[in-house]
Amino acid sequence: MTTELPVTKRFKPYQLSIAFGVGIGTFTMISGIVPQLTGWKSTSLIHREVFGGIPTAFQVAFYTVIPMMLIWGSLKFADRIRNWERGAPDRRKTTPKNVKRRLADYRSGVYMRTLLRDSAAGLMHSMIYFGFLVLLGVTTVLEIDHQMPEALKFLHGDVYRGYALVGDVAGVVFTGGVIWAIIRRYVQRPYRIRIKTKPEHALILGVLLAIGVTGFGAEMFRIAQGQAAGVNLDHEKWSVVGYPLAQLVNGSSASTLTTWHQGWWVAHVLTFIVFLAILPITMLRHMFTSPLNMYLKDRERPKGAMKAMPNLTETSLESFGVNAVEEFTWKQLLDLDACTMCGRCTSVCPAHATGKPLDPREIVLKSGEVMAATAAHALGGKVSPPLGADSEIKINANSLFERITAEEIWSCTSCKACDEICPVNIEILDKILDMRRYLSLMESNFPAQLGNAYRAMENQGNPWGMSQTDRGEWAKDLDVEILDPGAPFKSEYLYWVGCAGSFDDKNKKVTQSMAKLLKRAGIDVAILGPSEMCTGDSARRSGNEYLFQMLAMPNVEMLNTMGVQKIITQCPHCFNTLKNEYPQLGGNYEVIHHSQLLEDLIESGKLDVTNATLEERITYHDSCYLGRHNDVYIAPRKVVGSIKGIEIVEMPRNGTKGMCCGAGGARMWMEEDIGTKVNDERAREAIATGATRVATACPFCYIMLDDGVKGAGKDESEIKVGDIAIHLLDAIENGERSVATQSAPLAAANVASSTTSFS
After folding, report:
1. Are residues 446 and 543 in contact, defined by beta-carbon separation less than 8 angstroms?
2. Which residues partner with 591 through β-bridges?
3. Contact 274/207 with Cβ under 8 angstroms?
4. Kind of pairing, strands 566-569 and 590-593?
5. Is a pLDDT exceeding 90 seen at residue 197?
6. Cβ 47 vs Cβ 156: under 8 Å
7. Distances in Å between the alpha carbon of 552 and those of 468, 565, 583, 624?
8. Secondary structure element (H or E) that encloses residue 567, with its range
9. What is the pLDDT of residues 299-310, one digit of tens each?
10. Residue 292: phi, psi to the nearest 5?
């Protein structure tokens, strides 16, 4: 006999939203009824009567309308949650392993650490956010005390004095922050804010300002009314704003002041009701969605890895990439509702800054417009679109490309600056790359120049279109072991040279310099030579997953067969692919970027830099795929910093704020014929530092910056662009020459002295 186990029914997220709203609304209603039945009052002379001077009818209306608005808001949020559920699965479960990181991400967002990178905007938002939270807490505390029996009431005496002070200070901070926001948006008007300012923003700021002003107005007349009635309210002096304001209307009759108090109280409540009404249908919803998005930042795949796809030669999938809203994951749809429209992503985007069609913020907002317009399943048939959406725009089909153009998608350099700066952890780059997959695999809609790179990778195994037999030519005069295909791997490290390091004339010098440095340090390495194929980075970043797998799978099979465990590479794109993406295909290796290895060799003393000297001014350019994709910022700077005699200068945009060279995301193989060239813009920034050398740690960056510097009219005698390995070897060899020069006269003098003594 078979016993069937009962099916456990789980609440869906949208049902939890409704339950939460109903619960809070019901509790609020009960909290208004109970005091009417109990009649519990405080006997302390130093306290505050919650509804002092407010008619019973107003109190009933308060405890009726507010709960209804809370329930209505929960239903509207439930609609949005049902919209997110349209998306594909995305494993974002909280586990014992990730809970610490998740809480750290949440705290980072709530504490506005990213916002505070812009000190003015960060402080302004902090004033509004924390001021509002404290005011909400103050109101809640007052209501809790209101429910308590006389013996348990706590809001009296010194506790009340402190309460009054905290409440007024929070009100000043909140109202001051709102006024600052109004000035910033409508007077100062920074570009990223100015281009998206809509009437709805005025509504939001107006409601927030009204909450602050009417709150102080109600407090002002409450205190003045009590004084006019002959009540001793000296303790209200701790209301550092309300009490001084009350003195301005002293002399009016008690009845007049009561009327004014009731009017301001009603106005305050009405503004709060309007706030609750617009909360779920405007940008204000980010008060809930943004903290949730921050908490869910942590994901199973590494930071620099794209989403895995099944083997395209075996899968039964009929569509690849993202075209329809449902092809995004539920987390990507949550992203669309978490956006605050702050425009920080826009302000750091190299494509946007140089006149390209791409605006990362618009990618999020336009996707949100399509999501809202196609939400037929939701209660009411639709949900509100992102704030600022043009009501005249019509969405005719469930396709993101109804609003987003291919030109926008192909303008992206995949630098990840937008993701890094976003204060609420929106994953913008993932969306762009997913849409590229659709354009490439389903529509064959990609730039013609990229097609040339595809053919070269497919036919020659590298985007340069060079013969594989030439891969090891750079090593012909060097003592470097070239392995036979499939031979057992016996060296400590495999040196993965990469396509640029093998075929590009500039980067061959990097490879040769690195080989010489490794030999000096006594590091046992070998290379694959003609057996090494392109890792497939450019194919994958441009959406051609099929070509990526065609290149990557044989590489993984070869490396696994040979028994390779440790890999060195000078290319951050190879580094990211080998380290973060090959594990998706069964290739698990210890991958080290050459900057990390050089740092270790210098610190351990294996690479002697005692005499390494350059009397130069040098600036380092951060590679996006080494920095923002893999958080390697310090190692290359330490390598450069080990050189004596140099003066290190940083470009204004460096580290996490570094500007892309323009070659990432397969842009290396596409023409840049719109606006200013990204590499020219970055080169001008490097030149402006007054540096005589520019250090890079990426072959693409080396090519782009060298071209940009030369395009600006600077030859190598004025500014030398080169990889950190080139600069380090130059310094070591220069130091050796200096030592030899200094030693020669001394040796000659010693010989002469000996000869004289002998004779």
Report:
1. yes
2. 567
3. yes
4. parallel
5. no
6. yes
7. 16, 17, 11, 22
8. strand 566-569
9. 889 999 999 999
10. -65, -45
The 3-state DSSP class for residue 655 equals helix
For CA atoms 14, 18, 24, 25, the dihedral sign is: positive
The reported pTM is: 0.90
In our burial notation (b when 16+ CB lie closer than 10 A, e otherwise), range 630-655 reads bebbebbbbbbebbeebebeebebbe
Q: Over the stretch 617-653, which tens digit does the pLDDT of each residue have?
A: 999 999 999 999 999 999 999 999 999 999 999 999 9
What fold does the segment set 325-445 form as a domain? Fumarate Reductase Iron-sulfur Protein; Chain B, domain 2 (1.10.1060)
Average confidence (pLDDT) over 507-536 = 96
Bridge partner list, 329:
88
CB 279 within 8 A of CB 210: no
Question: How many whole angstroms separate alpha carbon 346 and alpha carbon 631?
Answer: 22
Tokens 């990778």 found at? 457
What are the strands of the beta sheet with 720-723, ordered from one edge?
Answer: 647-648, 617-620, 693-696, 720-723
Q: For residue 64, what are the contacts with CB-CB under 8 A and spacing of at least 6?
A: 29
- CB-based contact 659:350 (threshold 8 Å): yes
Matching residue, tokens 């000659």: 748
Token reading at 121: 């905007």
Q: Which helix (H) or strand (E) holds 367?
A: helix 360-373
Q: What count of other Cβ atoms lies within 10 Å of the Cβ of residue 300?
A: 12
pLDDT at 759: 41
By mean pLDDT, which of 278-287, 301-310, 355-364 is the weakest?
A: 278-287
pLDDT for residue 3? 47
CA separation for the pair 542, 666 (Å, rounded)? 6
Q: Which residues pair with 592 in a beta bridge?
A: 568
Q: Three-state DSSP class for 591? A: strand
Q: What pLDDT is attached to residue 757?
A: 46
**What are the tokens at 38?**
């109990």
DSSP character for 629?
Answer: T
* Beta strands at 720-723 and 647-648: parallel, antiparallel or unpaired: unpaired
Tokens found for residue 117 = 């990178």
Whole-angstrom distance, CA of residue 502 vs CA of residue 461: 12
Q: Which amino acid is at 206?
A: G
Which part of the chain is CATH 1.10.1060?
325-445
